[in-house]
Design goal:
Alkaline Phosphatase, subunit A, alpha/beta, nine-stranded mixed β-sheet
Length: about 475
Amino acid sequence: MNPLDESQLLLNRRTFLGRGATALGTGALASLLGRGGAAAAMSGGGLQGLPGYPPKPPRAKHVIYLFQNGAPTHVDLFDYKPKLRELHGKSVPDGYVAGKRFSTMTGEADGKLLLAPVEPFHQRGQSGAWVSEFLPYTAQVADRLCFVKGMHTNAVNHAPAISLMLSGAQIPGRPTLGAWLTYGLGCETENLPAFVVMTSVSKGTTCGQIFYDFYWGSGFLPSRYQGVKFRGNGDPVLYLSNPSGLDPSLRRAMLDDLAALNARKLQEHGDPEIAARIAQYEMAFRMQTSVPELTDLSKEPESVLSLYGPSVREQGTFAYNCLMARRLVERGVRCVQVMPPGWDQHRSLTTELYTQCRDTDQPSAGLVLDLQQRGLLDDTLVIWGGEFGRTPFIQGALDDRKNWGRDHHPYAYTTWMAGGGVKAGLSHGETDDLGMNVVTDGVHVHDLQATILHLMGIDHERLTYRFQGRNFRLTDVHGRVVSEILS
């Protein structure tokens, strides 16, 4: 949508309310501002009210993105290559790395020594998917997963690669996936944000990653579409409780007066950011009730809590955040982004990779099982993956096993998906015999983005926003729907 058109729609709506509904109390006015609006401007999606949206029947209504910040090593977890064990300690053949760009820590890859998988692989379930012993719980749900083994990207460093994966561009400033979904589809609840982000702590590791706000930003979309980050300690969001002496009725009266003042400014200027401010004040008021209920785990059966592992009750852990993700989509939240750090094993494959897998394996599998047994997996798309893979060759010295590592590798990696209209028990795509390059059924970052939008009922070429003279979209000018993985 053109932001000028959107502004005009907002102005017309405000003019209508101002002239035709003067008898409404400010409380009713604030409620209207929080719930409605041209093009669902106040709380829903920017395109939800337009004819033809969503253009296709959705397979999924919600997305949970378990984004493994730091880049998991595909050749140690999912992409089994016997040739790597056979050639362990030998130099990588020139033909595999010629002309390729790696991070400055690797520089030229010529002469680098190949490194065998640290732990054994086994084929799992009816599908026979290869999963390492690093991930025993994921192995148990392999038949429910779709492994996309032909992933590849353009970026070789973390922040640009994460930005590309989540926003379609390496340079920060574009709207992220959750913002686009919220803009296009709105939210199914008025009591929680449409797009929630949770980051977890990295215990016992030295390879944590920085979480930049642009990983869940709205870019040039109105700010009401940006992700709301839940904190890892204390109240998930600040100011859930009123200050001493301020009761809910007084808070309500203050917000009603503030809404009336902001409504006058909206009528005068038609600025979408004023509408966003009104809607967010109303959301904050409702969250004072909805968030305490959301985080109350007292009614969760022990059998469910046990799915996520022993740290599920500890706020700020990946296990806790996975359970919160299920509770959020259960309450109508459109997109939940869960981001654990710690996958950047440049010198710690034989130490910290074990810690990282122990922290994330059971909660990831438990989330899939929990969604399935509640009947939520059919319309919830779960995605697990990072920004790129790790090199099949070693970073460090071969005779120093304690400090074995792998560098960044954009040319091949693995992502898995579950539910939401993807085929279960499928391994799609293939890399060469060293896990170095994709050889069949490659899936670029933009292809994955197009597929996610398709599963949510959105044509990735139609969901656009006009900014600085041209229409932008999540997939930029690229992307194809990977129809082969659709159920």
